[in-house]
Design goal:
39% of the residues lie in helices and 21% in strands. By secondary structure, it is α/β, with parallel strands linked by helices. The chain has a single domain (11-74, 93-141), classed as 3-Layer(aba) Sandwich (Rossmann fold). A five-stranded parallel sheet has the order 3-2-1-4-5. Strand 1, helix 1 (18-30) and strand 2 (33-40) form a beta-alpha-beta unit. Helix 1 (18-30) crosses helix 3 (57-75).
């Protein structure tokens, strides 16, 4: 009996992009896999200072719902998910504390646009002791906030 690989997907604006879907397809083709999509909240403007714990959660939830459906189609299985803390490292820590995972896939914007790459999120996530795969993508039209 084959063990199911448990994969934590971490994305926000790139949750609906082809590179992330390709990573899901690849893992699903390699054998049984389960996927959990973590979308850290993304407060903007003054909300970053005034109410960072609340701001950006509705947008993140809408993105999560839409991306879960698309990724489920790619994986052939249900995708679980959650909206996480606005600090992506704290969000990953919380997800890892709540569930067991075998690897982390982080999807970011390209280096010139990504706040996550400016703080070197992929390297910091490796500190949790799991293999980390990093993919870059431009957000698709449907994932860009209006």
């Amino acid at each position: 009996m084959t063990d199911t690989r448990r994969v934590l997907l971490v994305a926000n604006r790139t949750a609906m992009t082809e590179p992330l879907r390709n990573e899901v397809l690849k893992r699903a083709a390699e054998g049984p896999a389960s996927f959990h999509l973590l979308v850290p909240a993304h407060p903007s403007g003054l909300h970053r200072v005034v109410d960072p714990e609340v701001a950006g959660r509705e947008e993140a939830q809408a993105r999560l719902d839409e991306a879960r459906a698309a990724l489920a189609e790619a994986s052939g299985t249900e995708i679980t998910g959650e909206v996480g803390d606005a600090d992506p490292i704290a969000a990953i820590h919380d997800a890892l504390s709540a569930r067991d995972f075998d690897e982390i896939v982080i999807s970011t914007l390209p280096k010139r646009l990504s706040r996550w790459l400016k703080v070197d999120l992929p390297s910091k996530a490796r500190g949790f002791g799991l293999p980390v795969t990093h993919v870059e993508a431009m957000p698709s039209e449907e994932s860009v906030p209006a």
